Amino acid sequence: MFELQNAQSLVGIAFVIGLCWVLSEARGRFPWKLAIGAIVVQAAMVGLLFGLPASRGALLGVGQAVDGLSASTQAGVRFVFGFLAGGDAQPFTVTDPGSLFVFAFRVLPVILVICALSALLWHWRILRWITQLFGILFERTMGLRGAPALATAATVFMGQVEGPIFIRSYLATLSRSELFMLIAVGMSCVSGSTMVAYATILKSVLPNAAAHVLTASLISAPAGILLARILVPRDPDAEKPQAMDPGAAKVYESSIDALIKGTGDGLQIVLNVAATLIVFVSLIAMVDGLLALAPNLGGAPMSVERGLGVIFAPLAWALGVTWKEAPAAGSLLGVKLVLTEFTAFIDLSKMPAAVISDRTRVIMTYALCGFANIASVGINVAGYSVLVPERRKEVMGMVWKAMMAGFLATCMTASVVGLLPASLFGQ
């Protein structure tokens, strides 16, 4: 049933779109049809995925597949690392089973396995067909040209830098609006490998977590396209109809070659994720140590997390969160932006029911499911500098704005989810 709290999420949608319009490079060219269409598409996709018995069964299957994948991955991890990977066979008495969940052994290996499987599915043309299908969908429904549509679809499954690789030969010819859109959409979504990792983190506190994470990344793409088109409107003269050969940006000689190269690519991602988390969490700990020297505020020491909670609490409320839960939800938004979504998801998984409700947990899952954070700014600059070096200066001039668009896109997605009745998600 639609309640007043659902209507509260309209504030979030209006705020996100309004803010992007205020910051637009051409406020007179607001894409009204695209705005209405993107919201309708998002709501319709959520309604179809969670409202129809057949799609609910499919999503349940996704969750079971993720559980099976996680269990299979742990078999490989235990073979290499033994009891350090957790499990029942421990050489000591376990008094706190929760402490056996070690991020390095339970989450990062999943990314490695998914990258290898993705390469294999690409070689078998399964993932390639899915990507091209979504590319056609974005082209027909969102008004994109062939190359950006294909790259946008690839980004949803492969990642913020990996997606544009599939149209590398076209990147130099894209309009400024299209290039900005690709960067923004890359930060609005997550990759297939990290989807499974997030689901692994949340599965103990969020029923059917895999379904929510998958849906979040899919429906954030239309939001990212919309906000990018508002901030940097398209130039019809620079975006003439374009015929393209989808080709194969990634070519593997055999299935074994795909698994080996996919594993190598996954290893780079795992190392980047681990290194980024170590550095950024360490820096925040340093700042917290300095803030602890100041007098207590409100009976508790100052911290970066508390400060972010205060700053982002109004935005969290606009998404549909109660004001009582807004500081906790706001801190998650801040942690996601300043640190990474991995850190925010870990914090979300540790928040007890007394702090945030089931409805808020669902909303925040959608709000956090995107690569928009400070670390991604560097990743995009480095990635596009290799893919299209002649436009590096242009990328550097728009990447921070793209990060904002990606962050707001996930907030818009969360608002659309908050707008829908909680009964749709079994609450």
In brief, what are we looking at here?
69% of the residues lie in helices and 0% in strands.
Based on the model shown, name its key terms.
mainly alpha, 17 helices, 69% helix
Supply the number of helical segments. 17
Our estimate of the beta-strand percent is under 5%
CA-atom Rg in angstroms: 21 Å
The number of domains: 1
Helix percent band = 55-70%
Mean pLDDT: 81
Shape: globular
Number of strands: 0
Gap from first CA to last CA: 11 Å
Element order, helices and strands?
Answer: HHHHHHHHHHHHHHHHH
Q: Tell me about the biggest sheet?
A: none
Contiguous uncertain segments of 5+ residues: none
Task: Decide which structural class fits the backbone.
Answer: mainly alpha
Topology, element by element:
Blueprint: H1 4-22, H2 32-51, H3 53-81, H4 103-106, H5 108-123, H6 126-142, H7 146-158, H8 176-188, H9 192-202, H10 209-231, H11 255-291, H12 304-319, H13 326-338, H14 341-350, H15 358-368, H16 374-387, H17 392-419
Helix pairs in contact: 1-10, 1-12, 1-17, 2-3, 2-10, 5-9, 5-11, 6-7, 7-8, 8-10, 8-17, 9-10, 10-15, 10-17, 12-13, 13-14, 13-15, 14-15, 15-17, 16-17
